Please model this.
Amino acid sequence: MDAKRVGILTSGGDCPGLNAVIRAVVKSSSLKGWDVFGIPYGTDGFIEIARGKYQPDELLLTKHGYALPGMLKGLDVLQFLSGSVLGSLSKGHPEEPAIAETILKGYEVMNLDALIVVGGDGSLDIIYGLAEKGNWNIVAVPKTIDNDVPFTEWAVGFTTAVEIVTQALYDLTFTAASHERIIVVQVMGRDAGHLALHAGIAGGADIILIPEITPALTPELINGCCHQLMKLRSSGRHFALIVISEGVKDSHHQSQKYIGDCLAEAILQQTEHLCQNHDPDFCDITALDIRATTLGHLQRSGTPLSLDRLLATAYGVKAVELVEKGEFDHVVVWREGQVQSAPLKPIIKIIKKCHADGVCAFPVDPEGFMVQTARSLGIYLG
Model:
């Protein structure tokens, strides 16, 4: 078997499980006698390589990852670490031709037989374009806490992010109950509602708002939220949890950095309006304190769960297998209970069209099982 020179990079937002992918690629490749080179900070690493900041041999990874100091030296711990030891940047398309040419030059300096790209839909779109220009041999591994990459049921990092949000909802339940509060929790997901929906169900939310079902905070939606809160209050519940995805727009159909605060304010105004218009049932809600909290980048942190480690490891091994078979321009996917692969070109076509149309490439199915599950539990979805 001919020895190969394989590059690996992580691009876009970080998430738990990236290091487990790197570990699996390095360990699997080492058993074949291949060399694996870690490209630092996504495609920016190729720019630095072209400019002479890094020499190829400096980027060689060993089966133990990096030479960790002290007692950790040599221990295989990468699968337990969050973030990315290679660094991960998300700066958008290299629009200037000179920058693109520098990236292509850096790739040539590395003299790679193949490049394994670990990224979300945006990163895959960018790197696929560069690969076409430079005739790169690429294999993609999907990772994103948004879980919005087409053709795969699971992306690396999603299940851990769901657990982090679920734990936050669990913790917030007790402060909400103690102070008789309505707490609005804003979560990530960009224009997809997978994270909000899964974590909201697991975390016991009373209301879950996702862009696929409630794209904006319309008066009808706010009124529906108020009636849901009134029903909870009538049943003896003096607190509530609301989960809203960051992709939901405000009442003017505009994006807001803190859409959770907009929702809290809208609910407060509507309940006061209903109370003042001689509907006494809503007067009790106006007495409740409504607070909004944004979890932010905590959702990208934390030790990857075993499921994410297993998924990342299986994806990394599959990526090496595809390189060995020469099946380039493919993405590793999870479908029908197992790791498979799919051609990358039609996926990129979907991603490009969706980005141009301003819609999600792999949205929540409004009629899907998870939505039906939430509705069957009495969760208000709009």
User: Anything to note?
Assistant: The longest strand covers residues 181-187.
